[in-house]
Design goal:
The chain is mainly α. It contains 16 helices and no strands. The chain starts with 8 loop residues before the first helix and ends in a 12-residue tail after the last helix.
Length: 401
């Protein structure tokens, strides 16, 4: 039988998720300084975020399933130690190639943030899975939202190399805490690691609910990346002509989504994830409709972004909760499949943002995102009705033994 997390364990996992995922973004405000220091074109250093994304998706595919095989204290400690080592390598990088390699490793090790979410769901007390997942999701959201601000501030004060060392020290502190406080119980698994990796693709066939979670989650993450990339491009151009710092301040509107996440967990535990996801999509759709009215009124833009981010964050936390509930003993594998496809669809949103903006303008791009959100909201009730007709797979007491 799985023992619940110790008191404070969920908050520790949330802190680990926040500081780990922040490493994928913290260096971005300092990229021009990095290029100047290394004496290479900014276009080459501009590949650093891409390297981090490639590493993170690799971690989702290859490292996240390890939560089904290794005790949380050992797994999280090892991965945070590897993250600290990769950050130290980046801090000592003599050139762009070493830095890019370091950021592939940093991105892979930062996938410990997703492991933290899976562990929180698996080891949550009875009836508290949604709350546990939402708490860790709040930590991840805070890490993403505040990473660029923290990274830019530290880089200005200490230099980009020492900034990376500060994050390495935080990773080591997290590793020490994880070794001490996280569960030492090793999950029971009937298959080896290689067999687990081979079993990942068939999970989509065996779990219709996982397919629906990928479809709906992918739609709102497509919309999320589409809006934020197009927003940054639009605000940088006339008539707005804002600088990077001013554009970055708009991301603080997402703090509403961060504040709403703890409530999301309680609602998902009390009602159903489907209900919470639908409410989240409709909230995000209202925010997108406000954004589609134009960006000339900053308070309206801020409110639109706040509702948009809150809806997407809320839906993501509830979606991950229902994925873990499919089979808590295989939560790492299920989350691995979901997140790899989720980020892939989101990357498409990033890639098409500029072409759509050039073709349709800001309002047309916002309406494209709105269409994706409304489609996601429409698909959730359909999936809920089909779920009631289908026999449960991998749930219930038998699957948790």
């Amino acid at each position: 039988m799985t023992r619940p997390l110790a008191r404070g364990g969920t908050l520790l996992l949330a802190s680990i998720a926040a500081t780990a995922i922040a490493n994928n973004y913290a260096i971005q405000p300092a990229l021009s300084a990095v290029a100047a220091d290394l004496g290479v074109p900014l276009s080459m250093i501009g590949l650093v975020p891409t390297a981090a994304l490639i590493g993170c998706m690799t971690g989702f595919a290859l490292l996240l399933p390890l939560t089904d095989h290794l005790a949380p204290n050992r797994l999280v400690t090892a991965q945070l130690t590897a993250l600290a080592a990769a950050l130290a390598l980046g801090a000592a990088a003599p050139g762009a190639v070493v830095l890019l390699v370091a950021y592939v490793l940093i991105g892979a090790a930062a996938s410990v943030a997703a492991q933290a979410s899976s562990i929180a769901g698996r080891y949550a007390p009875p009836g508290r899975r949604g709350t546990g997942v939402a708490t860790v999701a709040a930590g991840m959201s805070a890490g993403i939202l505040l990473s660029r601000l923290a990274g830019g501030t530290l880089a200005d004060a200490l230099g980009w190399r020492r900034m990376l060392l500060v994050f390495a020290a935080l990773a080591l502190l997290g590793a020490i805490a994880a070794a001490t406080l996280l569960p030492r119980q090793q999950p029971h698994s009937r298959r080896g690691y290689r067999a687990t990796l081979a079993s990942l693709p068939p999970l989509l066939r065996h779990h219709p609910q996982l397919r629906r979670a990928v479809t709906t989650g992918g739609l709102w993450y497509f919309a999320f990346n589409l809006i934020w990339v197009a927003l940054a491009l639009t605000l940088a151009q006339p008539p707005h002509s804002l600088g990077p710092t001013a554009i970055g301040l708009y991301s603080l509107a997402g703090l509403l989504g961060f504040a709403a996440l703890p409530l999301t967990g309680r609602l998902a535990d009390r009602y159903t994830p489907h209900t919470v996801i639908t409410a989240g999509m409709l909230t995000a759709a209202v925010g997108t409709a406000l954004l589609a009215t134009g960006l000339n009124n900053p308070p309206t833009t801020a409110l639109g972004l706040a509702l948009f981010d809150a809806g997407c964050f809320v839906a993501q936390a509830a979606n991950q909760s229902r994925i873990i509930a499919l089979n808590p003993q295989r939560s790492g594998s299920l989350s691995s499949v979901y997140l790899v496809l989720y980020f892939t669809i989101g990357a498409i949103g990033t890639a098409v943002a500029a072409p759509l903006l050039n073709t349709l303008g800001w309002q047309g791009t916002a309406f494209a995102a709105l269409a994706a959100l409304l489609l996601a909201a429409a698909l959730v009730p359909i999936g809920n009705r089909q779920t009631r007709r289908e026999p449960a797979r991998g749930t219930g007491p038998a699957s948790e033994r």
